[in-house]
Design a protein that fits this description.
Layout lengths: L4 E2 L3 H11 L2 E3 L11 E3 L1 H20 L4 E2 L5 E3 H7 L1 H4 L1 E6 L6 E3 H8 L10 H10 L17 E4 L3 E3 L7 E4 L4 H5 L2 H7 L6 E10 L14 E11 L15 E5 L1 H5 L5 E4 H6 L6 H16 L7 E5 L11 E9 L2 E12 L1 H9 L6 E15 L4 H8 L3 H14 L8 E6 L2 E6 L6 E12 L2 E8 H12 E6 L2 E6 L10 E5 L6 H14 L4 E3 L5 H10 L4 E5 L1 H6 L1 E6 L5 E5 L3 H9 L7
Parallel strand pairs: 4-11, 13-15, 25-26, 25-27
Antiparallel strand pairs: 1-23, 2-3, 5-10, 6-7, 6-8, 9-10, 11-12, 12-22, 13-14, 15-16, 16-17, 17-22, 18-21, 19-20, 23-24, 27-28, 28-29
């Protein structure tokens, strides 16, 4: 067997994906719509296994909770979160053919600039003019055309008419944040705790492209880790020796290269500042390798200062090299208290947890009890606002009540209240704790992007017995089908026996494909191409001796195994045992 070459280009993978049922453009019978894909039988199974693997690693093993929230969200949620004002991409319309283009992608495709998304609309317009960039559709030069912000959310209405506007969620995170008060109860108000969600998101992309990489409907797997900013961090000792391929902001600005350092080294050097971020970078690196991402084509790139989202104090992207380009497949953000504070301000719920003190504390607390019989006649309709401002002033500046009168400002107008009418007093209270707004650490995975990366990185081509073949070297637990079962030929009872074996293996919990079409070599090639790790062939010796031939995908090695031992042996193979010594 000749040595295998690794990796597939975009065209090769697209052809394989469509022919073998991994994924293909949706609704093609009606012309389709760009940015939407259907996962076929192989792809749906692969995606399901990938999600199960993520759930096992980031939910089960980390002792986190999982929820499933609606994909349609009322407008007030996104008013609070800031998505209505800031969830935009840059759009440019060709004046000749009317085609819409994502302006920062035009710059990236036609210059040496790799990350144009962080530039403003004015700078992008300048770059388009400086480089004489033309419309990809018709060739018209685009200099001077306006670059505008375009909100990516799909709008809808909830119920009849248009009185209740809503949106298809662009991420699963807000579905977790808005339920924080109840989720905190389930966690017994004990920080830290994590809440995960796997589900669909929707973004009305200006120019979907690169197959599953940039689409309008996608699956995300997100974890929101709620932490006390003043408490201990994660169990970092579990991962301190894990090596991380880091492409920090400092290295990028100095045009350096990837630095490989352990978690402990990265934290000691300050390359990664947050222990929680470092912890999840390590876990994600281990998980990505386990599901088939090539670690020689994988890195963590830190966002540059002008790239950071308004809510993030630090952010790293896991990027995979695909067809010569580095593509984000996962993001890790320190969102601070931004999200919970926003929902606390905009809703009637408290988005905090109570942190008890080790011992009760005695404090002096200023308060006011205004004499409304004085404020009402004196200030009329403004009396309530004056009372509210007096209460706020007592909290932030008690010394303002030291004189005979208190001066307050309401919308630029001055009001004077005699101190004796404010009911100001400083009271002694015993308090047992305080309310804390947790900070959020967010690992966010694009399942479609990870799946695409795994397919590209697991693709192999080699030569077997003088014939070329292609195969997917997928991890056993991820492969859509774990075992193929073939009769040598469908006669003399071989087909019946093979069907019985296939049924028994399905009953034992294995994903099985039965195939009796064509010669054995062709059947092996079909299973190799969809990544099936093992194939069982039933022949005449199976009928006489009760054994079958088991063949391993990558090496094509074969051995005979007793039929009654087959389920146990296959389970051992799935757990990592070798077929042959």
């Amino acid at each position: 067997m000749a040595d295998a070459t690794t990796g597939a280009d975009a065209d090769t993978l697209a052809e394989l994906a469509k022919r073998r049922g991994f994924f293909f453009p949706a609704n093609e019978a009606y012309g389709g719509a760009s940015g939407f894909y259907t996962y076929g039988p192989e792809g749906a199974a692969l995606k399901r296994n990938l999600e199960a693997s993520w759930r096992e690693r980031f939910v089960t093993r980390e002792d986190n909770m999982e929820i499933s929230s609606p994909t349609v969200t009322p407008e007030p949620v996104f008013e609070a979160s800031g998505h209505l004002d800031g969830f935009d991409d840059m759009i440019l319309e060709c004046p000749e053919c009317g085609a819409n283009h994502r302006a920062d992608h035009l710059v990236e495709d036609n210059t040496d600039i790799e990350e144009a998304e962080s530039f403003g609309t004015d700078r992008i317009a300048e770059l388009i003019a400086e480089h004489g960039i033309a419309c990809p559709s018709c060739g018209t030069e685009l200099a001077g055309e306006p670059v505008e912000a375009f909100n990516l959310m799909f709008e809808t209405t909830i119920g009849p008419g248009s009185s209740s506007p809503g949106y298809l969620r662009p991420e699963t995170a807000q579905g977790i944040f808005v339920e924080f008060p109840r989720l905190a109860e389930y966690a017994r108000n004990q920080l830290p705790f994590g809440v995960a969600q796997i589900g669909h998101g929707y973004r009305n992309e200006i120019s979907p492209r690169r197959s599953l990489i940039r689409v309008r409907e996608f699956t995300m797997a997100e974890l929101e880790q709620f932490v006390d900013p003043e408490s201990d961090g994660p169990p970092i000792e579990r991962v301190e020796d894990v090596t991380l391929p880091l492409y920090s902001a400092t290295v990028q600005e100095g045009e350096g290269s990837i630095e490989r350092m352990s978690v402990a080294e990265a934290l000691d050097a300050g390359v990664v500042e947050s222990e929680w971020i470092a912890y999840y970078l390590a876990i994600a690196r281990q998980w990505c390798e386990a599901v088939g991402v090539d670690m020689d084509r994988f890195r963590y790139r830190q966002h540059l200062p002008d790239e950071l989202s308004h809510y993030a104090s630090d952010c790293w992207d896991a990027e995979a090299e695909l067809d010569g380009n580095w593509i984000e497949i996962t993001g890790f953000a320190d969102r601070g208290a931004y999200d919970l504070s926003k929902h606390d301000d905009h809703s009637d719920e408290a988005f905090s947890v109570f942190r008890p003190y080790d011992e009760p504390k005695t404090v002096e607390r200023p308060s006011v009890e205004p004499d409304m019989s004085y404020l009402g006649p004196e200030f009329g309709a403004d009396a309530g606002d004056v009372a509210d401002e007096l209460a706020a002033l007592a909290e932030r500046e008690p010394s303002a009540f030291d004189g005979e009168a208190v001066e307050i400002d309401l919308d630029g107008e001055q009001y004077t209240v005699p101190t004796e009418k404010t009911g100001f007093a400083v009271r002694t209270e015993t308090i047992t704790g305080e309310h804390v707004t947790p900070h959020v650490i967010e690992p966010s995975f694009g399942i479609g992007r990870v799946l695409y990366t795994v397919l590209v990185h697991s693709y192999r081509e080699d030569e077997v017995e003088g014939e070329s073949r292609s195969y997917l070297s997928l991890p056993s637990e991820l492969a859509p089908t774990f075992i193929g079962v073939f009769p040598l030929m469908d006669k003399d009872g071989l087909g019946e026996r093979a069907n019985e074996i296939a049924a028994d293996l399905r009953a034992a919990g294995f994903a099985v494909e039965y195939d009796d079409s064509g010669n054995i070599g062709r059947r092996y090639r079909r299973q190799d191409e969809v990544g099936t790790p093992y194939c069982v062939t039933v022949d005449y010796e199976s009928l006489d001796e009760g054994t079958v031939t088991v063949r391993e995908r990558d090496s094509t090695a074969q051995t005979r195994i007793a039929i009654d031992e087959l389920p146990a042996r296959l389970a051992a193979l799935r757990a990592g045992e070798s077929l042959v010594d």
